[in-house]
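Hey,
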Amino acid sequence: QVQFVESGGGLVQSGGSLRLSCVGSGSIFRLYAMGWYRQAPGKWRELVASISTSGRTSYADSVKGRFTISVDNAVDTVYLQLNDLKSEDTAVYYCNADPEWDVWWGRGTQVTVSS
C-alpha cells in the first residue's frame, strides 16, 4: 500500500523560504514520476513541480525559478524547496505521482505566506 506523508509547511513572511518533505513507501520514487501539488482555498488542486524517474524536472510558470523539486531515493523522500515565497503561494501542498493516483493523496502540509 502506497502512502505519502508530507511535512515542512508553516507560516513564513513574503520573500521567505521553506523546504517541504514527502516520505513515500516501497521505493515508489524509483518507479513513478513524482509531483508536488497545491490547493489554495476555493481553487482547484494544481501541479506545481514534477520530477521524472530519470531526474528531469518541470515547473508551473507561477513557480519557475523559485521552487526546486528533488528526490533522495536512499531515504524515500521527495523535496520541494520554496524560495522567494509570495502570498499567492499560500495553499496546502501535497505530493503524489505524476499523473496522480486518487488513492495516494496524503493529508498535505499547510504553507501560509504573510505579506
